[in-house]
Amino acid sequence: MKFAHITALVLASAILGCNQPSGSVDRGQGGLAKQGGQAGGQQTAQPAGKEALSGSILVDGSSTVFPITEAVAEEFQKVYKGVRVTVGISGTGGGFKKFGNGEIDVTGASRPIKPSEVELCQKNGIEYVELPVAYDGLAVMVNPKNTWVDSMTVAELKKLWEPEAQGKVTRWNHIRPNWPDKEIHLFGAGVDSGTYDYFTAAIVGKEHSSRGDFTSSEDDNVLVQGIATDELALGFFGFAYYEENSDKLKLVKIDDEDPTNGDGPIAPSMETVIAGTYQPLSRPIFIYVNKKALDRPEVAEFVKFYLSNAPKLVKEVGYIPLPDRAYELAQKRADARRTGSLFAGAGSQVGVKIEDLLAAEEK
After folding, report:
1. Average model confidence (pLDDT) across the chain
2. pLDDT value at position 343?
3. 263: pLDDT strictly greater than 50
4. E strands within the chain?
């Protein structure tokens, strides 16, 4: 069996001498800036008593968080036409590198900051404010022509994805004897991504630990295409990307074999993630804001706009809003310039409710 390694290449062409119109949204894959148009549908009124802001805000990071930030940026610039927001995608790890080096104002992250990234921030004198913005469920998927897989246990996923599986667990009947004696072709999030870190922590038991013989990409669309065209494929990425492509993919229900989280295999949905029954593949996702940048009026207003509009925009782009109280407490964190991580800089933690951590911080 052959497994491919894919690195998503992004080709950018820059036209020198072209001035971008004020108020446009730059959007990019892998950090590529693109000129974006106005989002359709939703209209946001100019807040009363607000003076016009100007300036630019640089955002990068997680591909998972990108659709939320993109939607927020577009709506924000309908209100504040003098501010230009550039939103790139370098993955959670790539975003934290830029953030820790002081290159950007905000980074999106699909997991909490980890020790090596905390160390980079400290080295460069970067203080950060961690703000949760949504819940997400990681989806496990197969090709629609796959007739034998409807559900898997966490133990079976571990058997398939742990480092020791490489070169040994290579066929479907290695997982269950009644499954076909055919190759398994694995697809997963890029190893620089927070999605990969969280999946390995939740399934294998150790962050950034897995077999290496799988097709990986920071671009979820590459993974969608791979699974959708390969009858023997199995892969994972964020639930929102599954929902966008549900006609091309088949969702696998997950059984954590813990009766306290509900009986039997459970599929990710807004209801099961909020209820905490889709375990262990439910997680909070974040933005991190440079404290110094937060002292700039345009950045402070962007963060406030982000948190106040997140319940509506998060749902529009296919993610799961936090409880209203969580957004209120997150805004208090931003207003107080409360630095550091709710997770003590330890990286991915499985099975937590962000609203509980925020409430505990207030006590």
Report:
1. 85
2. 84
3. yes
4. 25-27, 35-36, 55-61, 83-87, 106-109, 128-142, 151-153, 185-189, 215-217, 233-238, 250-255, 282-290
